[in-house]
Specification:
29% helix; Methionyl-tRNA Fmet Formyltransferase, Chain A, domain 2; seven-stranded mixed beta sheet; six-stranded antiparallel beta sheet; 2 domains; single chain; alpha+beta; Rossmann fold; 17 strands
Length: 319
């Protein structure tokens, strides 16, 4: 099968590799343009671009496809049977969706119609759902509204997953399913099934401010934030006029440490250090900070932080 592949992050590269391993003819790879990254702010290619070039494939990185006649012509002249999109990071315009005769196949990291939109993994963690999965679908002009080709079995969540970890696992599952689904679509053994739009839920695009911790929320909700917003936008607060990233936390139960901290803590955001542990009050429950990063400093464990910043004991986090 002749395929044009669209993708950008490392999770997408797994799907590209699975298609190459299955013997498909990759006519071209499309990925996001290089971006400045690292301390040197050097132009860095996406993992998909790196993988595609490593396999000797033609790789294109246009700034966009909308109103781009040159790229539409190029895509048409590639004569692909199908386009495959995995976390490309750009919306394909209608004139591109109409090019391949078999349609445009997409891997979406949720069990559609639940969690349509740009942040399905983050939202699943934030809402504390017990299971999720992967959908392989055909794209249409809507936001993840196209017919379903296949879905993974529900994947049970333990309540400890972090955003990057869960997203990577879901896209790996999608990469395993993809070659068989494409074969079934070509052979006619898979029939696209319309979604039940009445059951749809839609996620929103993440913004930097979403990661700011409101200590008046519950300890459980803040724990979900810290895990969901890894790696971006991260969960953060402030202390002594400086930004403070909260990298890893744990719920504090009815242990002696929890009881001692409860007796010492006041309003939400107030800090106590019982037995050398960094504990913060919330509106409901206590949260122990395990790893954190003060503005301008390296990420450290709570124990290392307390050795350098003992005056946080009795302080208050947040505005």
């Amino acid at each position: 099968m002749r395929i044009v592949f669209f993708g950008s992050p490392a999770e997408s590269a797994d799907s590209l590799d699975s298609l190459i391993s299955a013997g498909h003819d990759i006519a071209a790879v499309y990925s996001q343009p290089d971006r400045r990254a690292g301390r040197g702010r050097t132009n860095t290619p996406t993992p998909v671009k790196t993988s595609g070039l490593g396999h000797g494939l033609s790789v294109f990185t246009p700034k966009g496809l909308r109103n781009n006649d040159e790229e539409v012509t190029r895509l048409t002249e590639l004569h692909a049977d199908v386009f495959v999109v995995v976390a490309y990071g750009r919306i394909l315009p209608p004139e591109v969706l109409q090019i391949p005769p078999m349609g445009v196949v997409n891997i979406h990291p949720s069990l559609l119609p639940s969690y349509r939109g740009p942040s399905p993994v983050v939202t699943a963690i934030l809402e504390g759902i017990s299971e999720t999965g992967v959908t392989i679908m055909l794209l249409d002009e809507g936001m993840d509204t196209g017919p379903v080709l296949a879905q993974s079995k529900p994947i049970r969540l333990l309540g400890t997953e972090r955003g990057a970890e869960l997203q990577g696992a879901l896209f790996k599952e999608g990469a395993k399913l993809l070659p068989e689904v494409l074969h079934g679509l070509q052979a006619g053994s898979i029939t696209p099934q319309p979604q039940d739009h009445a059951l749809a839920t839609v996620t929103s695009l993440l913004e930097r401010g979403d990661g700011e911790i409101d200590w008046a929320a519950s300890a459980e909700q803040i724990d979900r934030m810290v895990r969901a917003y890894d790696p971006w936008p991260g969960a953060f607060t402030s202390w002594n006029g400086k930004g403070l990233k909260i990298l890893e936390v744990a719920l504090v139960g009815g242990s002696p440490v929890g009881i001692e901290a409860s007796s010492r803590l006041g309003a939400a955001g107030s800090v106590s250090v019982p037995e050398g542990r960094l504990v913060v009050a919330t509106s409901h429950g206590l949260l122990e900070i395990l790893r954190l990063q003060l503005e301008g400093r390296q990420a450290v464990t709570a124990a290392d932080f307390l050795r350098g910043q003992p005056d946080i004991d009795g302080g208050v986090l947040g505005g």
